């Protein structure tokens, strides 16, 4: 699908963010057709030089590749007068400016909201921080695992006498990215109605805290404390049995079945007289332990066939290999495959929202640092001579 038919075609985004949350949010906008210009240092954005999982590439590591498709790269030195002037020229025709600098850095660079909105009052300016831009934690590092620990979520699962287990994904970064994406879209809708731009502020601490709407309300409204059990129950606010269990040949997930029915199916007579709404809380450890012992007697496939036949909520525990081979993933078109000029054939997760009239698409893979510097500056009105001068001076770089 040509990008001109995407839902955000015609919008320009200046992405001055680094690492994951900001670039992921900007990539979402690019997936919907926005012209995303990645404004990065002449040496390239930080993520180009730090590879998650040690996964390198030919010229672009997998971390950067995965978070920067559908973007053009302008490599520019914002500490130089010419480099900063080039960015301010781009701001005049931009719709969105996105950054996740440490609090105070944008102002020192002269790219804070007050400065840029004076140049372009219609600008939607999205600022992402770790803990908020004021307050006692504003200068702390906004790193995913640190925020997971602070969020309270780790103490909603697992054994009482064991350290908490972090999420198996960069959860806070991803949730923050989606929160920023949502905020930008809402601000653009407001602008369509009023012509007015605005400042959108998102922070990682609020994003992961508000994600726990139900759990925290159980605590604040009902006064139910987080009490982890001796057994590795999957969530303190869900009745037993609830968690991952070993089988004869692997693992499965079991989610709060009727105790009487479960007892019949797994051969546990003590469950037959238990009350779901009383005993499944009061005897959580006993129920978990007995379920665990019974489930080791058959294979995962055998248990899943039995449970599904009786409408008990159960499912497999996948690794990534099984996930990619799942027929529902294929049916949904969850992953996209495209050819990258330096990295070859690339398969990555796609865009999760489907539009009947304006579907998302991959127009380009992640760019090399400065790959589009000439093109972007020409779009802003710079002449070829001026562009040559900027590159020769080091204010701008090209690949």
From TrEMBL:
Name the record gives this protein: CoA transferase
Entry keyword set: Transferase
Molecular function via GO: CoA-transferase activity
Taxonomic source organism: Xanthobacter dioxanivorans
Lineage: Bacteria, Pseudomonadati, Pseudomonadota, Alphaproteobacteria, Hyphomicrobiales
PANTHER family recorded: BLL6097 PROTEIN, SUCCINATE--HYDROXYMETHYLGLUTARATE COA-TRANSFERASE
Keyword rRNA processing: no
Recorded superkingdom: Bacteria
InterPro entries: CoA-transferase_III_domain (IPR050483), CoA-Trfase_fam_III (IPR003673), CoA-Trfase_III_dom3_sf (IPR044855), CoA-Trfase_III_dom_1_sf (IPR023606)
């Amino acid at each position: 699908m040509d990008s001109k038919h995407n839902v955000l075609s015609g919008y320009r985004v200046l992405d001055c963010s680094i690492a994951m949350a900001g670039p992921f949010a900007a990539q979402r906008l690019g997936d919907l057709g926005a012209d995303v210009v990645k404004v990065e240092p002449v040496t390239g954005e930080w993520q180009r030089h730090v590879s998650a999982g040690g996964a390198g590439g030919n010229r672009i590591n997998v971390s950067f590749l995965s978070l920067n498709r559908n973007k053009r790269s302008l490599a520019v030195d914002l500490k130089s007068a010419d480099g900063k002037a080039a960015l301010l020229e781009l701001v005049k025709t931009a719709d969105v400016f996105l950054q996740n600098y440490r609090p105070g850095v944008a102002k020192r660079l002269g790219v804070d909201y007050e400065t840029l909105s004076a140049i372009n009052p219609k600008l939607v300016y999205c600022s992402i921080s770790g803990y908020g831009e004021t307050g006692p934690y504003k200068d702390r590092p906004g790193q995913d695992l640190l925020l997971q620990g602070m969020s309270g979520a780790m103490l909603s699962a697992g054994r009482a006498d064991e350290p908490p287990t972090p999420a198996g994904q960069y959860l806070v970064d991803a949730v923050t990215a989606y929160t920023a994406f949502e905020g930008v879209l809402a601000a653009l809708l407001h602008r369509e109605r009023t012509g007015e731009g605005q400042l959108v502020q998102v922070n990682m601490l609020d994003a992961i805290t508000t994600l726990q709407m139900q759990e925290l309300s159980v605590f604040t409204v009902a006064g139910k404390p987080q009490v982890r059990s001796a057994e590795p129950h999957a969530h303190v606010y869900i009745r037993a049995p609830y968690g991952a269990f070993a089988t004869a040949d692997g693992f499965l997930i079991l989610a709060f079945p009727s105790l009487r029915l479960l007892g019949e199916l797994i051969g546990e007579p003590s469950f037959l007289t238990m009350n779901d709404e009383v005993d499944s809380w009061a005897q959580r450890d006993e129920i978990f332990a007995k379920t665990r012992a019974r489930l080791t007697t058959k294979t995962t496939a055998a248990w899943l066939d039995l449970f599904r036949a009786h409408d008990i909520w159960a499912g497999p525990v996948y690794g990534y290999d099984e996930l990619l081979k799942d027929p529902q993933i294929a049916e949904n078109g969850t992953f996209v495959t495209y050819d990258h000029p330096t990295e070859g054939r690339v398969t990555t997760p796609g865009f999760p929202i489907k539009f009947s009239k304006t579907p998302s698409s991959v127009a380009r893979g992640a760019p090399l640092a400065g790959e589009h510097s000439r093109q972007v500056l020409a779009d802003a009105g710079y002449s070829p001579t001026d562009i040559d001068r900027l590159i020769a001076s080091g204010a701008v770089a090209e690949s």
